[in-house]
C-alpha cells in the first residue's frame, strides 16, 4: 500500500512494512492459548471469591480486591484480543477492506495498550499497598478502607485508559501489524509516534522498577519482624502469603514484559523495529495473562503451609507440643492457687 492522502492512517506504511499473511499463524494455537488463559483466570476468580468470603484479615481482604482487579483485567484482555485474532485466522479477513475507517484497528490497538499496562500498574500499586501495610501498619489501618481500595483499582484502569486513548488524539497512532490479525501503536521517528512509544515503555519499566524496589524493602522488613522479639505476638501467615504471591507476580511480569518494553524503547530511538521481533515479544508478554492466575490458585496459605509441613514435619509437632506444655503449666498453676 502507498502512503497517500487516500490511505487511512492505520493502513499506511509504517516503520515496519505490513505483510498480509494469514498463513503465518494457526487458529489452533491462538484458540488453545486464549481458552487456557480464560479458564485459568475464571478458576482464579472463583478461588479469590472463596478466599475473600473466608478471610478475617482486613489487609488480606484489601489485597484480594487488587488481585480480583488483576484477574478481571487479564480475563477481559484475553477475551477481547483473542476474539480478534481467532476470527482473523478463521475467516482470513483483510481489515483494509471491511474496516476502511480504522474503527476496529483503533479499538484493537487501544485494547492492546490498555490490557498491557493495567497488570504492570496494578502490580506497582499492590507493591505500594504491601509496603505501607508492612512498614506503616498503624497509619495504613486508619486510612485505607475497602471503598478506597476499589477506587485505587478504578484509578489504575482510568490512567491506563487515558494512555490508550492518546493515539486517537494525534499523540501517536495505531497501525495494522503483520500478519494482519492485530493492531498496535506505530514505532517510528515521527515525533508523536516516538513520544508515545517512549511513554508506553517508560510507564511499563517504571512500574516494574517500583514493584522490585518496594517488594524488596517489604521482604527485608518482614524477615526482620518475623525474627524479632515480637514474632510470637503477631501472626505473619497472611503477610507471608501475600508477599509470596506478589513476588511471583512481579517476577512473571518482569520476565514477560521487559523484553518488549526494552525493545520498544530501543526501537523508538533507533527506528529499527522488526515485525517478527515485535510479534514474538507480544506473544511473550501475553503469557503474563495466563501465568498470573496460577499464582493465586497454587500459592495460597493452605498450600504454603502444606509445603512447609512436608519440608519440616516436626515443626507442627513441636508447635503442638509447646501448646500442650503451656496448657499443662496453666493447669498446675490453677491447682496450686486452689490449694
Itemize the secondary structure elements and their pairings:
Elements: H1 27-54, H2 58-91, H3 95-98, H4 103-135, H5 137-143, H6 146-165, E1 174-177, E2 182-185, H7 191-227, H8 237-270, H9 275-298, H10 301-311, H11 313-338
Antiparallel strand pairs: 1-2
Give a description of the structure.
It is a single chain. The chain is mainly alpha-helical. The chain has a single domain, classed as Rhodopsin 7-helix transmembrane proteins (Rhopdopsin 7-helix transmembrane proteins, Up-down Bundle), CATH 1.20.1070. The chain is 76% helix and 2% strand. The chain has eleven helices and two strands. A hairpin with a 4-residue loop joins β1 and β2. 37% of the residues are buried. About 4% of the residues have low confidence.
Give short descriptive properties of this protein:
339 residues, two-stranded antiparallel sheet, Rhopdopsin 7-helix transmembrane proteins, 76% helix, 11 helices, disulfide bond, Prostanoid_rcpt, mainly alpha, Thromboxane A2 receptor, phosphoprotein, thromboxane receptor activity
* Dominant shape: globular
How many beta-strand runs? 2
How many separate structural domains? 1
Distance between the termini: 101 Å
The largest sheet is: 2 strands, antiparallel
| Name of the CATH homologous superfamily | Rhodopsin 7-helix transmembrane proteins
- Biggest sheet, spatial arrangement of strands: 1-2
Overall SS class: mainly alpha
CATH architecture: Up-down Bundle
| Radius of gyration computed on alpha carbons | 25 Å
Poorly predicted ranges (pLDDT <50, ≥5 residues)? Answer: 315-326
Which fold name is given in CATH as the topology? Rhopdopsin 7-helix transmembrane proteins
Transmembrane segments: 27-50, 62-90, 110-128, 149-174, 194-223, 244-266, 278-299
Subcellular location: Cell membrane
Pfam families: 7tm_1 (PF00001)
Protein name: Thromboxane A2 receptor
Amino acid at each position: 500500500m502507498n502512503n497517500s492522502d487516500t490511505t487511512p492512517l492505520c493502513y499506511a506504511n509504517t516503520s515496519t512494512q505490513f505483510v498480509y499473511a494469514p498463513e503465518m499463524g494457526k487458529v489452533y494455537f491462538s484458540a488453545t492459548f486464549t481458552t487456557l488463559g480464560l479458564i485459568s483466570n475464571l478458576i482464579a476468580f472463583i478461588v479469590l471469591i472463596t478466599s475473600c468470603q473466608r478471610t478475617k484479615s482486613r489487609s488480606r481482604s484489601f489485597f484480594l480486591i487488587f488481585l480480583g482487579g488483576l484477574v478481571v483485567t487479564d480475563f477481559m484482555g484475553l477475551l477481547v484480543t483473542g476474539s480478534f485474532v481467532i476470527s482473523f485466522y478463521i475467516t482470513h479477513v483483510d481489515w483494509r477492506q471491511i474496516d476502511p475507517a480504522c474503527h476496529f484497528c483503533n479499538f484493537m490497538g487501544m485494547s492492546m495498550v490498555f490490557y498491557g499496562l493495567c497488570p504492570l500498574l496494578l502490580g506497582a500499586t499492590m507493591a505500594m499497598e504491601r509496603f505501607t501495610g508492612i512498614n506503616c501498619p498503624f497509619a495504613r489501618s486508619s486510612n485505607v478502607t475497602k471503598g478506597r481500595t476499589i477506587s485505587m483499582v478504578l484509578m489504575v484502569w482510568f490512567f491506563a485508559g487515558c494512555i490508550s486513548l492518546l493515539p486517537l488524539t494525534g499523540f501517536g497512532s495505531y497501525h495494522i501489524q503483520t500478519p494482519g490479525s492485530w493492531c498496535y501503536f506505530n514505532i517510528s521517528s515521527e515525533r508523536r509516534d516516538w513520544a508515545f512509544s517512549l511513554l508506553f515503555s517508560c510507564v511499563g519499566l517504571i512500574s516494574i522498577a517500583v514493584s522490585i524496589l518496594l517488594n524488596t524493602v517489604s521482604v527485608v522488613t518482614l524477615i526482620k519482624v518475623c525474627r524479632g522479639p515480637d514474632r510470637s505476638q503477631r501472626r505473619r501467615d497472611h503477610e507471608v502469603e501475600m508477599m509470596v504471591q506478589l513476588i511471583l507476580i512481579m517476577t512473571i511480569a518482569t520476565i514477560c514484559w521487559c523484553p518488549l518494553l526494552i525493545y520498544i524503547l530501543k526501537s523508538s530511538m533507533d527506528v529499527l523495529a522488526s515485525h517478527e521481533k515485535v510479534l514474538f515479544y507480544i506473544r511473550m508478554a501475553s503469557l503474563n495473562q495466563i501465568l498470573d492466575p496460577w499464582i493465586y490458585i497454587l500459592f495460597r496459605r493452605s498450600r504454603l503451609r502444606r509445603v512447609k509441613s512436608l519440608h519440616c514435619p516436626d515443626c507442627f509437632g513441636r508447635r503442638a507440643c509447646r501448646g500442650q506444655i503451656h496448657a499443662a503449666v496453666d493447669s498446675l498453676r490453677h491447682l496450686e492457687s486452689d490449694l
